[in-house]
Amino acid sequence: MSDGQADVIVIGAGVAGFSAALSARRAGASVEVISGHAGATSLSGGAWDVCSDLYASTDEIIRPLRTIAEEIETLVYEDPHHPYSRMGSPATALIQAAHDAVLTALAIYRPLDLTSRGVLVATDLGLLRRTATAQDAVLDLASAGTLDTSVSEHVPTPISTGVLSLRGDRNTDARFLSASWTELMSLAKKSRNFAPLYIDFFNRKDDALLHPHEIAAIGDSDEGSARIADLIASAVRTNKFTSVVMPPILGYKRDDVRARMESVVGLSLGEWVQPLAGPQGLRLSRRIDEVLREVGCVRSDTPVKSLDVRASGSIVHLENGTQKRAGAIVLCTGKHVGGGLTMRGGDLVESLSALPVYIDGHVQPLGSSADGRDPFHFFGNDPFAGGPGFRAGVGYDHTMRARDRRGDVAANDVFVAGALLEGVEPSRDGTGLGCCATTGFVAGRNAATQAGRG
Amino acid sequence: MSASIESVPAERPTHDVIVIGGGINGTGVARDCALRGLRVILFEKNDLAFGASGNNSGMIHGGPRYLTDHPEVTQESCRDSGYIQAIAPNLLFRIPFLFPIPADSARSKIVLAAVDAFFSYYDKFQPLKHGKPHTRLTPSEVRRLEPGLVGDIAGAVTFDEWGTDGHRLCVLNAIDAREHGASIHVHHEVEDVLRERSSDGKEGRVIGVVARDRLTGARVKALAKVVVNATGAWSPITASLARGAKTKVRPGKGIHVVYDRRVSNYAIASNAIDGRQIFVMPWGNISWIGTTDDDFYGDLDHLTATTDEVRYLVQGVARVLPSIREARVIGTTAGVRPTLFEYGPLEDKLSREHEIVDHASRDGVAGLYSMIGGKLASFRSFAEEMTDKVCLEFGGPRPCSTHKDPLPGGDALVHADSVAETYSVPEPSVRRLVYRHGTRVHAVLARATKDPNERAVVCACEPVLECEVRHACREEGARTLDDVSRRTRLGLGACGAMRCAHRGAQIVAEETGRAPREAHAMAARFLMDRYQNRAVGIAGAQVMQEELLASRFGIGAGLFAHTRRFSGGDER
Question: What ipTM did this prediction achieve?
Fold first, then answer.
C-alpha cells in the first residue's frame, strides 16, 4: 500500500503478535508491529506448552501415556470453545505448521514433534513438568544422561544429576530441590538421583541482592561465563554426575553461553524452568525483537489509545493523536496480564475497542465484588483451576476475525489471536505459548490475504 | 482407642490444670496459672490465636463505649491497658483516632459539643493507660490532617488508643507459660473430657482429657484436677464433651478488610449505612477497615468473609473516605466473638463483658470452668479472675503477678538500628523483629550469625527473615506454614504470598521433618487460603495478579498438577 501505510498492523509483540507478524510477512504483506509494555510472554519460563495432560499424576508426568498429538485430539473433543476446536482444519496440522515456522525463526527452542511425548523439565519450585518443547538452555530430564523413558522398571545404575544452587540465594535451595526431584522420580519408580551442589557465586556484599536476570546477564560476558563455568567445574570434579541442572543463569543476551560452558565443564548443563520475571522470558522477548527486525517488520512503540472497528475500514488511534489504517489489523494484546482485557466499572471489557467479551460461546457481562456480584462466580473457587473470567475473551470465527455482539464478523479487517481469544487461558489450560503461536500464525496469514497479499 | 493413648499412670494427675483453647483467654490463664506455680497443660485444636484472638482489630482500648453506663468498666479497661503496656512495651503502638462530625444538620454543633464533653470525661481515665488527652479540631485542621476526608465537616475530636498484634500477644503468653513449666500443644483437639465414675456408674468430677494430634493422629491423655474451657465461640461444643455441662454464647461474626498500604494518617471512625460505627485504621504498613457484627450459625473452623460483608464495610468507609474504593484489597480476616448470650437485643447492643461458669454449681460437673465472653483489651484481668478461682481448688489464694512480670522480650526497649548494624541485617526487617520479639530479638538473630544463609529475606513484603521462620518452628511451636504466618506475618503482605509460600513451606517442612511433597502441598494450600481470603474483596486490575498467580504456580511450575495427588486429609 502507499504512503508508508502497512498492509497489516499487529498490536502486541508477544508470541501471538510475533507469529502473526511472521506469517503475514511470509505471505508477502508489509507489517507494522505496535508494542507497549511487557506482557505474559516476557514473564514466561523456558517451557513452551502446546497441549498438556492437566490430569496427569506424578508418574504420568514423568512417563507420559500419550503423545502431544493425542492430547490435542482429546482437547478438541472435550472443549468446543478452545481455539484448537474452532480453527477448522485439523488442529494438529495447523499447530505443526505454525511451530515449524515460529520455532525455526526463534532458533532458541527445540523443534516441536507432535508425535513425541515432549520434554521433561524441572521447575524452580522443585517440581517436574512435561512440556511440548523447551528452550535449548533448559535441561531435558527425559533425554539428558539418557534417562530411559520406556516403561521398564529397572535402570541398572541410577543416573545422577547435580542440582546447582548459588549459596545464599533466597529463592531456591539445592538441598530441597534435589530431595524433591529425587522423591518425585522415586514415586514414578524411576531411579534417578539428584544431589545438591553449591557454588560461591555471590562473593561481593551486595551480590545476593541481584535479580535473576542480572545474574543471567553475568553469563553473557565471556569473562562471566568463564567464571561460572570454572566454579561449576571445580564443584562437580569429585562427583560422578551425568548432568547438572541449574537456575536460569546461562545468559539471556546471547545464545551460545550453554555450549561454551559445557565445553569447560564437560557435562550436559541446563537450566530449570522459572516462569515469571526470569531471564528465560527475557531471552524469548529478545529473540522476538531480533527476528521481527530481521524479517523486515516496522516497529512502533507509541501506545495505542483505541481501535475503531468499522466495516468501512478500521482505524487505530495512537496516544500521540495520530491515526493509522491498514489492510488488516491483528489484535494480540493478551488477556489480563497484557491488558487486552480489563475490568472497567465492575465489568470485563476489551480494552482498545468496543468488541464484546464472550464467555463459553456467549456475550456475557461479568462483574466483580465492586458491584456486589460474588467474585467466586468470576474467578472460581480455585485459583489454579480458573473460572469464567479467565476463559473470557474476544469472540472470533474460524478465520480469527473478531465477532460483534450478534455473533457476526465485526469487521472484515479485524483479527484476534493469542490469549485475548475467548475460550483459551494459556496460563491454566496447558496450551500455553503453543496456542498463541498457532492462532497468531493463522490470524496473520488471513490478515495478509485480507490486505490483498498472500 | 485406649491402646493408642500415651501411657500415663491412670490414678495420679499429670498436671494441676488443663486449659483447652489457645486464644488470648487460654494462653492468658495458662500463663497466670504457671506463674503462680501450678502445673499447666494447654491444648489448642488449631493454632494459637486461630479464632477471634487473632482476627480482631488488635486494639488494647480503654472501653469508651462503657463510659456512660458503666464507668467502672472503662476504668478497669484503662488500668489493664496500662498493665499490658508495662509487660509488653514492644508489642503496643499508639493509634490516634479521628472522630469527624459531619455538618449535615442543625444539630451538628451540638453533637460536636457532646462528643467533646464525652471525651473530656474519657480523658480522666487516659493517664491509667498513658493515653494522650483528646483534642477538638476545626474543619480546616481536620482537612489538613486528613486530606482524603470528604463532605462538610463540622469538626472532629481526636482520642488516643493502643494497638497490638493479637497473634503475638497469644504466642508470648504461651511462651511465658511454657518457660514457667506449662506444656503447650497446638493442633491438638480435645476429644473427650474424662470424669470420675462411681460404682453405680454415675459420673463425678472431671479428672482429665484425651486429645488427638490433628497432624499425626497420635492421642495424648492428661489428668488434672481442674479443666478450664477457654474456647471462645467453641465453648458450648467443648463443654458438652463433659456430658452434662452447658454454656451459652451468642457467636457474633466480625470481619475486616485489609489493604496493601496505609490509606489514612489517622484511624477514622465512620458510620455504616445502618448507623453502626465502623473505622479505617492504619496498622503497621497496611490498613484495616472493620468491623461487622452478625449472629453466626455456621462452621467455626472454616470461616470466611463474604462479599456482602466486604461491601457493607467499603460502602460505610467510602462515605467519609471515598478513595477507599480505589485502594487495593489484599485480604480479609474473619472471627467469631464469644459474646455472652442474651436473647433479643441487636448484636451491637450485647455486652462485651465476661463471665466465669463454674460447672460444679450449675451442671454438677465439678472441676470444669468455662470462660465466656471477654475482649482482647481485658484478657489479663479475666485470666487473673479465672486463676484466682482455680487457686482456691489448690489450697487457697496465691498472689498474681501478670500485671508486673514482663512477657518474653518485654523487659526492656530495644533500638532496632543498632541491632541492624550489629548483625548486618536489613533495618526494616529488624524493626519488625524487635516489634515481635522485644529483647528476644538477639535469640532470633543469633541463628543468622551462626549461618549467614538465614539472613535471607524469605517474605519480601513484610519482610521476614529465614532465621525468624526457623525460630518460629523451633521455639514458638509453629508446625505449619499457616502457624508461621500467624507468628511472623509471613505471606500476609501485598503479593498474596506469591513470593514466599514455597520457600516458607520448604523451611517449615525441613524444620518439622516432612517430605518435600508435603512442603509442596503446604505451599499450595497456603496460596489457596490466601486467594480465598482475598478473592471476596478484589476488583478491577487485580484480576491481573490472579492470572500471574496461576501461571506462576499452576501450569507454569507444576505445583497444581502434583499437589492434587499429594494432598488429602485434614492436614493444613
Answer: 0.89
